[in-house]
Protein backbone atom coordinates (compact mmCIF):
# COMPACT_ATOMS: atom_id res chain seq x y z
CA UNK A 1 0.00 0.00 0.00
CA UNK A 2 1.36 3.43 -0.93
CA UNK A 3 2.09 6.15 1.63
CA UNK A 4 -0.82 8.21 0.29
CA UNK A 5 -3.15 5.24 0.73
CA UNK A 6 -1.92 4.81 4.31
CA UNK A 7 -2.41 8.50 5.03
CA UNK A 8 -5.95 8.30 3.64
CA UNK A 9 -6.67 5.25 5.79
CA UNK A 10 -5.38 6.93 8.96
CA UNK A 11 -7.30 10.13 8.21
CA UNK A 12 -10.57 8.29 7.61
CA UNK A 13 -10.12 6.28 10.81
CA UNK A 14 -9.53 9.46 12.82
CA UNK A 15 -12.56 11.25 11.40
CA UNK A 16 -14.87 8.31 11.96
CA UNK A 17 -13.62 7.76 15.50
CA UNK A 18 -13.42 11.29 16.84
CA UNK A 19 -15.62 13.63 14.78
CA UNK A 20 -19.31 13.93 15.68
CA UNK A 21 -22.20 16.09 14.56
CA UNK A 22 -22.31 19.50 16.23
CA UNK A 23 -18.55 19.74 16.68
CA UNK A 24 -16.17 22.53 15.78
CA UNK A 25 -13.04 20.93 14.31
CA UNK A 26 -9.62 22.46 13.85
CA UNK A 27 -8.56 21.62 10.31
CA UNK A 28 -4.84 21.07 9.80
CA UNK A 29 -2.60 21.72 6.82
CA UNK A 30 -0.60 19.34 4.65
CA UNK A 31 -1.10 16.19 2.62
CA UNK A 32 -2.36 13.99 5.46
CA UNK A 33 -4.62 16.69 6.88
CA UNK A 34 -6.09 17.14 3.41
CA UNK A 35 -7.34 13.55 3.48
CA UNK A 36 -9.06 14.23 6.83
CA UNK A 37 -10.67 17.43 5.54
CA UNK A 38 -11.88 15.63 2.43
CA UNK A 39 -13.40 12.84 4.53
CA UNK A 40 -15.22 15.38 6.69
CA UNK A 41 -16.48 17.03 3.51
CA UNK A 42 -17.81 13.70 2.24
CA UNK A 43 -19.68 13.05 5.48
CA UNK A 44 -21.08 16.59 5.54
CA UNK A 45 -22.23 16.23 1.93
CA UNK A 46 -23.93 12.88 2.64
CA UNK A 47 -25.64 14.22 5.75
CA UNK A 48 -23.88 11.80 8.08
CA UNK A 49 -22.28 14.78 9.81
CA UNK A 50 -24.49 17.77 10.64
CA UNK A 51 -23.81 21.17 12.16
CA UNK A 52 -20.06 20.71 11.86
CA UNK A 53 -17.81 23.76 11.50
CA UNK A 54 -14.10 23.91 10.78
CA UNK A 55 -11.39 26.28 11.97
CA UNK A 56 -8.74 26.19 9.20
CA UNK A 57 -5.03 26.59 9.88
CA UNK A 58 -4.03 27.99 6.49
CA UNK A 59 -5.29 29.65 3.34
CA UNK A 60 -4.90 26.30 1.54
CA UNK A 61 -7.14 24.54 4.05
CA UNK A 62 -9.65 27.39 3.94
CA UNK A 63 -9.91 27.05 0.15
CA UNK A 64 -10.30 23.27 0.37
CA UNK A 65 -13.01 23.48 3.06
CA UNK A 66 -14.92 26.05 1.01
CA UNK A 67 -14.67 23.80 -2.04
CA UNK A 68 -16.06 20.87 -0.04
CA UNK A 69 -18.88 22.85 1.55
CA UNK A 70 -17.60 22.65 5.13
CA UNK A 71 -18.89 25.66 7.09
CA UNK A 72 -16.05 27.63 8.69
CA UNK A 73 -15.59 29.52 11.93
CA UNK A 74 -12.86 31.67 13.48
CA UNK A 75 -11.27 31.57 16.92
CA UNK A 76 -12.94 34.90 17.69
CA UNK A 77 -16.28 33.12 17.35
CA UNK A 78 -15.65 29.78 19.04
CA UNK A 79 -13.05 27.23 20.11
CA UNK A 80 -12.53 23.83 18.46
CA UNK A 81 -13.60 20.70 20.29
CA UNK A 82 -10.51 19.06 18.78
CA UNK A 83 -8.06 19.49 15.93
CA UNK A 84 -7.20 16.96 13.23
CA UNK A 85 -3.78 17.35 11.63
CA UNK A 86 -0.85 15.47 10.20
CA UNK A 87 2.65 15.33 11.64
CA UNK A 88 6.19 15.18 10.30
CA UNK A 89 7.53 13.10 13.19
CA UNK A 90 5.87 11.42 16.17
CA UNK A 91 7.67 9.84 19.13
CA UNK A 92 6.31 7.20 21.51
CA UNK A 93 5.28 9.87 24.07
CA UNK A 94 3.30 11.65 21.31
CA UNK A 95 5.68 14.59 21.17
CA UNK A 96 5.76 15.85 17.60
CA UNK A 97 7.64 17.80 14.98
CA UNK A 98 5.31 19.70 12.68
CA UNK A 99 5.59 22.59 10.28
CA UNK A 100 7.43 21.29 7.25
CA UNK A 101 4.25 22.12 5.33
CA UNK A 102 4.64 25.78 6.23
CA UNK A 103 1.82 26.49 8.69
CA UNK A 104 3.23 25.65 12.11
CA UNK A 105 2.32 28.87 13.95
CA UNK A 106 -1.35 28.76 12.98
CA UNK A 107 -1.43 24.99 13.50
CA UNK A 108 -0.14 25.39 17.06
CA UNK A 109 -2.53 28.24 17.85
CA UNK A 110 -5.53 26.18 16.74
CA UNK A 111 -4.32 22.95 18.36
CA UNK A 112 -3.55 24.58 21.69
CA UNK A 113 -6.99 26.24 21.78
CA UNK A 114 -8.79 22.92 21.24
CA UNK A 115 -10.77 21.70 24.23
CA UNK A 116 -9.96 18.03 23.67
CA UNK A 117 -6.50 18.47 22.18
CA UNK A 118 -4.89 17.46 18.92
CA UNK A 119 -5.50 14.22 17.02
CA UNK A 120 -2.64 13.51 14.63
CA UNK A 121 -2.85 11.17 11.66
CA UNK A 122 0.16 9.70 9.89
CA UNK A 123 1.61 6.75 8.07
CA UNK A 124 4.12 4.58 9.91
CA UNK A 125 7.13 6.26 8.27
CA UNK A 126 6.55 9.28 10.55
CA UNK A 127 7.14 7.27 13.73
CA UNK A 128 10.61 7.90 15.22
CA UNK A 129 12.50 6.73 18.30
CA UNK A 130 13.62 10.30 19.03
CA UNK A 131 12.60 13.59 17.45
CA UNK A 132 15.10 15.24 15.13
CA UNK A 133 15.22 12.69 12.35
CA UNK A 134 14.62 15.61 9.98
CA UNK A 135 14.80 19.41 10.31
CA UNK A 136 12.87 21.28 12.98
CA UNK A 137 10.97 24.24 11.46
CA UNK A 138 11.02 27.55 13.33
CA UNK A 139 8.81 30.40 12.16
CA UNK A 140 10.75 33.66 12.40
CA UNK A 141 10.08 37.34 11.91
CA UNK A 142 11.37 38.71 8.63
CA UNK A 143 13.07 41.62 10.43
CA UNK A 144 16.59 40.63 11.45
CA UNK A 145 16.13 37.02 10.43
CA UNK A 146 19.88 36.68 9.91
CA UNK A 147 20.46 37.42 13.61
CA UNK A 148 17.70 35.03 14.63
CA UNK A 149 19.31 32.20 12.65
CA UNK A 150 22.68 32.94 14.24
CA UNK A 151 21.17 32.56 17.71
CA UNK A 152 19.34 29.40 16.67
CA UNK A 153 22.69 27.97 15.56
CA UNK A 154 24.06 28.56 19.07
CA UNK A 155 21.59 25.91 20.30
CA UNK A 156 23.53 23.26 18.40
CA UNK A 157 21.76 23.13 15.06
CA UNK A 158 22.39 24.11 11.48
CA UNK A 159 19.56 26.51 10.52
CA UNK A 160 18.71 27.17 6.90
CA UNK A 161 16.26 29.74 5.60
CA UNK A 162 13.49 27.97 3.66
CA UNK A 163 13.16 29.13 0.07
CA UNK A 164 10.02 29.27 -2.05
CA UNK A 165 9.52 26.13 -4.13
CA UNK A 166 8.16 28.03 -7.12
CA UNK A 167 10.83 30.75 -6.98
CA UNK A 168 13.97 29.47 -5.21
CA UNK A 169 15.53 32.93 -5.35
CA UNK A 170 13.01 34.16 -2.76
CA UNK A 171 12.34 33.03 0.81
CA UNK A 172 9.19 31.05 1.53
CA UNK A 173 6.63 33.27 3.25
CA UNK A 174 3.96 31.87 5.57
CA UNK A 175 0.33 32.98 5.55
CA UNK A 176 1.24 35.27 8.46
CA UNK A 177 3.99 36.95 6.44
CA UNK A 178 6.90 35.27 8.23
CA UNK A 179 9.98 33.29 7.20
CA UNK A 180 10.79 29.72 8.23
CA UNK A 181 14.15 28.40 9.41
CA UNK A 182 14.67 24.66 9.02
CA UNK A 183 17.01 23.64 11.83
CA UNK A 184 18.98 20.39 11.57
CA UNK A 185 19.78 18.90 14.99
CA UNK A 186 21.72 15.67 15.47
CA UNK A 187 18.95 14.66 17.89
CA UNK A 188 16.40 16.25 20.21
CA UNK A 189 16.51 14.28 23.49
CA UNK A 190 14.46 16.86 25.46
CA UNK A 191 11.84 18.48 23.19
CA UNK A 192 10.14 20.42 25.99
CA UNK A 193 13.36 22.13 27.09
CA UNK A 194 14.40 22.92 23.52
CA UNK A 195 11.00 24.45 22.82
CA UNK A 196 11.48 26.81 25.78
CA UNK A 197 14.99 27.75 24.63
CA UNK A 198 13.87 28.54 21.09
CA UNK A 199 10.93 30.66 22.23
CA UNK A 200 13.27 32.78 24.35
CA UNK A 201 14.97 34.01 21.17
CA UNK A 202 13.70 37.41 19.98
CA UNK A 203 12.51 36.91 16.43
CA UNK A 204 11.70 33.21 16.87
CA UNK A 205 7.92 33.37 16.82
CA UNK A 206 7.15 29.65 17.22
CA UNK A 207 8.80 26.29 16.67
CA UNK A 208 7.52 22.99 15.31
CA UNK A 209 7.92 21.10 18.58
CA UNK A 210 4.42 20.12 19.72
CA UNK A 211 4.79 18.83 23.27
CA UNK A 212 1.83 17.77 25.45
CA UNK A 213 -0.62 18.80 22.74
CA UNK A 214 -1.44 15.47 21.07
CA UNK A 215 -4.32 13.56 22.62
CA UNK A 216 -3.95 10.65 20.21
CA UNK A 217 -2.09 9.49 17.12
CA UNK A 218 -3.70 7.36 14.43
CA UNK A 219 -0.90 5.53 12.62
CA UNK A 220 -1.51 3.48 9.47
CA UNK A 221 0.98 0.83 8.40
CA UNK A 222 1.09 -2.15 6.11
CA UNK A 223 -0.47 -4.31 8.84
CA UNK A 224 -3.37 -1.98 9.62
CA UNK A 225 -4.17 1.10 11.67
CA UNK A 226 -3.21 1.61 15.32
CA UNK A 227 -4.36 4.25 17.79
CA UNK A 228 -2.03 5.58 20.50
CA UNK A 229 -3.56 7.77 23.17
CA UNK A 230 -1.91 9.87 25.88
CA UNK A 231 -3.01 11.70 29.00
CA UNK A 232 -2.12 15.36 28.54
CA UNK A 233 -2.50 16.44 32.12
Question: What do you see in this structure?
Answer:
The protein has 6 helices and 13 strands. The protein has helices at residues 3-18, 31-46, 59-68, 104-112, 145-153, 191-199; strands at 24-27, 53-56, 82-86, 89-90, 96-97, 118-123, 136-140, 158-161, 179-184, 204-207, 209-210, 214-221, 224-229. Helix 1 (3-18) crosses helix 2 (31-46) and helix 2 runs parallel beside helix 3 (59-68). It is globular.
Explain briefly what this protein structure is.
The protein is of the alpha/beta class and 233 residues long. It has six helices and 13 strands.
In the sheet with the most strands, the strands line up as 2-1-3-6-12-13
SS element count, helices: 6
Shape: globular
**What's the total number of strands?**
13
Could you name the CATH topology of the largest domain? Rossmann fold
Computed CA radius of gyration, to the nearest angstrom? 17 Å
Number of domains: 2
Oligomer: single chain
Q: Ends: how far apart?
A: 36 Å
Integer average pLDDT:
96
Give me the secondary-structure category: alpha/beta
Contiguous low-pLDDT stretches (5 residues minimum) are none
Q: How many strands, which pairing sense, and closed or not: the largest β-sheet?
A: 6 strands, mixed
Helix content: 25-40%
Approximately what portion of the residues adopt beta-strand conformation? Answer: 15-25%
Identify the CATH class of the largest domain: Alpha Beta
The CATH architecture assignment of the largest domain turns out to be 3-Layer(aba) Sandwich
